Design the sequence.
């Protein structure tokens, strides 16, 4: 499952503190560069009042806004559509389009990279131009179109037209594969659709609640989280069965395997649009990424950004870059993690999946990751981390004392955060486990190759066997891959969850959404790394051990980076975030304590969910 852990806001304060209280005092948007302060405040109050009246007037079911069931249904269907299509994608390319496993891997990882690069675009469109509702609706239509293209172009048999190849009639074809263009267009449309709506749906759901409904908002995100995992797991189990069915005169039925997810996406759009009259629609207010870009350009040009944008904002941007430095090794983490859907599926396809009359499909092995995630997260929290604390390993939280951080708030506040030392230990441990999973995978591959070699040596008079032609009884069982899946899942919990927890603790309050966007972008970079590094060799055995070594190198890089940024990160955190040089800066800090700007990808009040599933 992409990139697996993401965080969802659970108190809605990044939106609700602005709208329900009628406070739009964030001076990031009300400085002189954006017009007159009093006019902007008056307009904001107008918006706040209308939004509050709308929230008070909408119908409710069991205390929840009537639109909430539709949003949850939309998310379930969208996740089913995405994971249903993605689960069978690798085998579709190798068996239906007759690509080599290297080309199929490149296509797969290019697609996933686009899925995790486009959330940045979706957030900007929603926050700056169209608003969340219109962004979700329009990009969902693009999404549906991509699914339809995938299903329609999967109909019929295709021959690979290579240069010099001849048909039955002896006609020579050029090196051209017209059937490739359909899936190519479909995948790019799906990537734009799923990535564009990814950062918008959860926060749009949070917009429907009032500030006083924090407990209901918490339960909403629990249901939202459940719908994400339920949709992905059901799809991962179901679509391989549809793929394996016989239809249209073929032994497989990829049109059905892609068609059912396409239908689910249409249902998702219908469910979302039907409830449009009940939605609270907050107009776009701007995106913090734009502010980061402005300050960064001023720093690059050698100007004094403090005078242009205020000391607090510049301090926030500097702290943001320190946090993002910790993300530098993560593309290599995702590079290994995402190969569960490409090379690991190809490996499982060369194994015996028979279990007491039932055949476990190779692409169904991907379901073990989300199942293990749901089982292991509470196990780590209740058993593993307490046990590690008992033996003295650094997994405890650190209580940080922060004094009078904001104007207008007296006394000290105590905040429990994960220290960077503990976070470093967890993330490095996770990367070592991910590396170990590829070592296990390498030895499994070695055992498979030895079986083929042994059979050929024992039967020299017969046609040499390959992975594909070796008799099922001679192949390794597909459950042999369970240990590597278990180990990589444990590494995911230690590494990915901890990274987002660390980012939430140390990122500036107004820029936590930027951190999530950048974390999703590391997944895209990781998939690009797969495309680049797999050009080194076509031998799977060497590739698995090569990736294991690369991930160990990333673990050392993580240690080095964390050692370098630990002191300034802690200094910013303990100092209360911002220098208070001027009255304007003090007012800006007070505004930040009352409300933060709306964003499509908030991290505030995080709750665990899977990035890969989300």
Sequence:
């Amino acid at each position: 499952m992409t990139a697996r852990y993401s965080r969802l806001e659970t108190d809605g304060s990044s939106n609700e503190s602005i709208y329900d209280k009628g406070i739009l005092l964030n001076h990031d948007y009300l400085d002189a560069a954006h017009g007159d302060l009093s006019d902007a405040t008056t307009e904001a109050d107008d918006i706040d009042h209308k939004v509050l009246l709308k929230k008070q007037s909408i119908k409710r079911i069991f205390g929840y806004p009537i639109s909430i069931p539709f949003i949850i249904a939309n998310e379930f269907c969208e996740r089913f559509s995405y994971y249903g299509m993605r689960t069978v994608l690798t085998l579709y390319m190798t068996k239906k389009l007759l690509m080599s496993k290297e080309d199929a891997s490149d296509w797969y990882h290019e697609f996933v990279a686009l899925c995790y690069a486009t959330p940045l675009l979706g957030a900007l469109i929603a926050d700056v131009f169209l608003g969340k509702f219109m962004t979700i609706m329009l990009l969902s239509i693009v999404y549906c179109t991509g699914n339809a293209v995938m299903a329609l172009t999967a109909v019929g048999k295709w021959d690979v037209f290579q240069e010099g190849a001849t048909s039955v009639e002896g006609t020579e074809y050029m090196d051209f594969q017209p059937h490739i263009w359909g899936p190519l267009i479909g995948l790019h449309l799906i990537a734009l659709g799923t990535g564009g709506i990814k950062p918008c749906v959860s926060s749009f759901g949070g917009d429907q609640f009032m500030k006083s409904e924090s407990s209901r908002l918490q339960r909403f995100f629990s249901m939202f989280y459940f719908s994400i995992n339920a949709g992905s797991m059901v799809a991962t189990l179901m679509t391989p069965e549809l793929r394996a069915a016989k239809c249209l005169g073929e032994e497989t039925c990829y049109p059905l395997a892609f068609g059912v997810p396409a239908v689910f996406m249409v249902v998702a759009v219908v469910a979302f649009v039907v409830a449009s009259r009940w939605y609270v629609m907050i107009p776009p207010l701007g995106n913090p990424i734009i502010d980061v870009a402005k300050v960064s350009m001023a720093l690059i040009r050698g100007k004094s950004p403090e005078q242009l944008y205020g000391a607090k904002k510049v301090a926030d941007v500097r702290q943001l870059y320190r946090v993002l430095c910790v993300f530098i090794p993560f593309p290599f983490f995702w590079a290994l993690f995402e190969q569960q859907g490409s090379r690991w599926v190809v490996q499982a396809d060369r194994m015996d999946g028979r279990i007491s009359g039932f055949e476990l499909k190779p692409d169904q092995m991907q379901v073990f990751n989300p199942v293990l995630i749901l089982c292991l997260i509470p196990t780590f929290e209740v058993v593993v981390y307490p046990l590690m604390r008992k033996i003295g390993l650094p997994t405890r939280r650190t209580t940080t004392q922060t004094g009078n951080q904001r104007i207008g708030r007296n006394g000290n506040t105590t905040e429990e955060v994960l220290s960077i030392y503990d976070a470093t230990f967890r993330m490095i441990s996770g990367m070592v486990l991910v590396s170990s999973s590829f070592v296990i995978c390498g030895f499994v591959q070695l055992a498979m190759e030895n079986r083929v070699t042994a059979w050929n040596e024992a039967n020299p008079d017969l046609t040499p066997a390959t992975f594909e032609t070796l008799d099922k009884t001679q192949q390794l069982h597909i459950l042999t891959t369970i240990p590597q899946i278990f180990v990589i899942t444990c590494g995911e919990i230690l590494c990915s969850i901890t990274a987002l927890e660390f980012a939430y603790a140390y990122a500036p309050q107004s820029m936590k959404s930027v951190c999530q966007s950048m974390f999703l972008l590391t997944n895209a970079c990781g998939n690009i790394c797969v495309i680049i590094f797999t050009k080194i060799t076509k031998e799977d055995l060497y590739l698995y051990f090569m990736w294991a070594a690369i991930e160990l190198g990333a673990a050392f890089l993580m240690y080095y980076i964390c050692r370098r940024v630990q002191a300034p990160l802690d200094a910013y955190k303990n100092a209360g975030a911002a220098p208070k040089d001027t009255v304007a800066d003090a007012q800006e800090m007070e505004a930040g304590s009352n409300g933060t700007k709306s964003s499509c990808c908030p991290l505030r009040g995080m709750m665990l969910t899977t990035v890969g599933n989300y």
